[in-house]
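Hi everyone,

Forwarding the result from last night's run.
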Amino acid sequence: MAHRATVQDLAEKAGVSVSTIDRIMNGRDKVRAVTAAKVLAAAEELQFYALPALRERLQVDRPRRKLGFLLQQSHRTFYRMIAETIRTAAADLPEPVDVIIEHVDDLSPEAVAEQMLKMGDNVGALAVVTAEHARISSAIESLAARGVNTYGLISELTASCGTGYIGLDNWRVGRTAGWAVASMCKRPGRVGILVGNHRYRCQELNESGFRSYCREHAPEFTLLEPVQTFEDNAIARDVTEQLLRREPDLVALYVAGGGMPGALQALRNSGRASSIVTVGNDMTEHTRLGLIDNVVTMIFAHPIQRLAQEALAQMQRDLNTGNAPTKRFLNFEIFGPENI
């Protein structure tokens, strides 16, 4: 049976005495607003059994939070799915929040940083999907000086002030992809790797984890240098076609970043899809159809509903407690042709 949080657990989590919790629970005395906020945030995180009663007794008068999400291009299915899921999850929160979601078409660091700073005028916390760059780090530091927490969503970000993160442990995703390729290939051989952009930490970690596993457990495979797709499907198709022509004995392809629809189109057109183990990331209409048609062998996916819930909860919790933005790692989902 799962452990149920006790009053002692709640007191330790909130950093207050048991007698303070007792006073709150029995309504004997009022507590300071900052203490009330800490106790309520701790109770929410612990799923304390008397959480509804605590909310009623504390009656913490907090302003309605505004949480921002800056996602990539709206024409990409994956980011439309995330936006829709965030809106749905926000509507189910016990503490109402206003969610502001924007998409950016120009993925250059300058354009993304400018949009981050604009959104910072209207939100208390901002989650953003973007590549690592000095411009981005500077924007994060400027936002922090204005009291706005910044979180890397899906891909981690860095800045001198510290950043939060909600997403996968991408090094483990890469190692699992390495295990899949080594286990499912019928023979050792040459393996192609596609990345969208080396500045995305998630993709760099995907690749390094992949190489780490193969170096340790499958040295008989030859891993080729990664080819960039620049998150563009047309470029991904072209570079995959070139790779297939250049490597007639290719046994596997790891798509560690964007451009999966283009890569799948090239595989279909080549007529070699059935002889190449192809693994990649995230469940979309393209990867689902690829699995059904056995063009894709395995997909490692974000649990999108939980990603939205955890992002909203963590951003809200950090604001309520006054904590620096923190990190939340999620388990990834694995899909093959037989479990979609």
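The mean pLDDT is 92.

Cheers,
N.
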